[in-house]
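Lab notes, practical 5.
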Amino acid sequence: MSKKLRIGTRESQLALWQANHVKVLLKKYGVDAELVQIKSEGDLDLTTPLYAMGVQGIFTRSLDQALLNNKIDLAVHSMKDVPIELPAGIVEAAILERDSPYDLLVPNPSNENIHLENHKEAIIASSSLRRKAQWLHRFPADHIEPIRGNVNTRLKKLEASNWWGAIFAAAGLQRLGLRKASSIELDWMIPAPAQGAILVVCRENEKEILERCHKIHHDSTAFCVKIERDFLAAMLGGCSTPIGALAETEGEEVFFRGNLLNPSGDKMFSIEKRISVELAASLGTAAAYELLSSGGQEILEKKQHV
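Output from the prediction step:
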């Protein structure tokens, strides 16, 4: 393909890193590309908590529109931001190998020698309803403070605050080289479905582009995030519902963990499943139905009546 591919990306440092990563991977297979920066709705409003904005695809819609309008050839998304159903005319071109799916607590620099289990009534910063609910389920005396902005902005806000710490996705900090030695991995906090994975999309029927992008596709990651997103789809969940899901391959098995909480975190329904890879194609959907039938449905019903 002689023509340079135009890769659409948001303007944040992390989004640019992800788009450049795609560009570098494609270059290894002889595909030249250039970046096209596009503002997203989620980057324009940096004060409203994401769950309060109530709009699925707020970080992806502008890029997808540019793709459909032929202003770009590929769009690069953090896959956890992508709605379950892609817009008509857009298809998955590649899912890259996933980095860490977990969340981190980054302590305030003024008090980096913290002990997670022994603290009392701390202020924790996060704009994720999922993180808020899971944290309060474990530490109900704490207070969650909303925080918005790109990674660097949030780190600066943490440094200038009286917060005990802030919660970040491990993958974002690692990609930018900003993961601090004092960070605490929250392995008990089930991440958002597809957290840590990068999705590349293109227009449907672009056969040559799809063939080129398939070279950077990671089958194992795609398999796991499909299970997680199937779980989310069966829950009818979005950014305003605290839902966690994580599927990991361990040899010939898949280990899946999922949960559903109410926003205050005082109620949580969880499920764990271990199954052979060859039988796991419908694991996410089956796990969701089992969790809903074992009590999780009441959380969704209460949410619908709010």
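Observations recorded by the TA: The mean pLDDT is 91. Residues 139 and 155 are 22 Å apart (CA to CA).
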